[in-house]
Amino acid sequence: MSYLPRVNKVFPAAGFSHEEIRRYGRHLIMPEVTLEGQKKLKAARVLAVGTGGLGSPLLLYLAAAGVGRLGIVDFDTVDDSNLQRQVLHKTRNVGKPKIESAIEAIRELNPNVEVVPYPTALRSENAIEILQDYDVVVDGTDNFPTRYLVNDACVLLGKPNVYGSIFRFEGQATVFWAEKGPCYRCLYPEPPDPGMVPSCAEGGVLGVLPGLIGMVQAIETVKLILGLGDPMIGRLLLFDALGMEFREFRLRKDPACPICGTERTIRELVDYETFCGIVAPVVTDDLPELTVQELKRRLDERADFDLIDVREHHEYQIARIPGAKVIPLSEFHQRIHELDPAREIVIHCKAGVRSAKACRLLFDAGFRKVQNVAGGIDAWSLEIDPSVPRY
Prior knowledge:
This protein is α/β, with parallel strands linked by helices. It folds into two domains: about 5-275, NAD(P)-binding Rossmann-like Domain (Rossmann fold, 3-Layer(aba) Sandwich); about 290-385, 3-Layer(aba) Sandwich (Oxidized Rhodanese, domain 1). Helices cover about 35% and strands about 15% of the residues. The protein contains 16 helices and 13 strands. The protein has an eight-stranded mixed β-sheet, with helices on both faces. The protein has a five-stranded parallel β-sheet with strand order 9-13-12-10-11. α4 links the parallel β1 and β2 (about 70-75). α4 (about 55-65) packs parallel to α10 (about 210-225). The longest helix is centred in the middle third of the chain and has 18 residues, at about 210-225.
């Protein structure tokens, strides 16, 4: 029995070449797969949203397994900071579009796979059109608006959504399929407040972790195509790398879910940036920004102000702007008393996000002479002092 009835329809008449028989031989001799199962893989169409930490192992293993058509959605470029975990991409491809790098790697691994690129951001305007031609959708994204978008589009189209997420030393994976179990909104009805959950760029991630979670997603995808085993529908797998511990939680369909419940209220895709509260930036006219060029000029002039670095202490050890005092954002509430509201205060972090939050905290506490360094120490390294490492 297959979980994907469409895949059981007419298979390519040409069958397999001798090279393919040799390539997939270890599948063909498995009684659970055989030639018929490999035909299902060859006929399958899988869409991967993202070619980052999760998409990298996922795409490599699905290509190696012989999935016939792989769609890839990604609009980013390869950065050297990706290479610690995004094994699909190579050093020689830094600066290239990730989608080109991914196609190159897949074709080197298995030229029999058809790759369909979508070099664009997935949005409400294009999601239905892109997802509708695929049997399985795999979510390898790292932001809440796209996760809700992928979920809602999959629910509306009746598609399975193979989900994974990672952060620092922890990961999770499941299969959301509203026709057979819960969807993402059943587990997370509302997104967290903006800034409450740091991104991997802010909080970090163990480089090997997405390899494990991405492979779990690949296994679940292959199981769905072949109709084997017990797919993780209604089960959430949690992994703790530090404790090397796997835990599983049962998920239930929420009857009140606004998109897959008994009285659903969502019948079309919405504005997911607004839904997740990602609207105007934190810094407003009453919390002005300072460019790194302006900061450099004021430091050279020995202007009288306090420069505060709200990154963590271990980040300060990597790179620093001379003269900055470290008060991590995680300690900011408890250490506001160390700052003098009568003095001018300039705050920076890695890229300007955490420092903007610190500026808002000071403003709410009655401080008025506060400025946020736009772009943070990353902009300082790019535009002022390239000897300062970027991370």
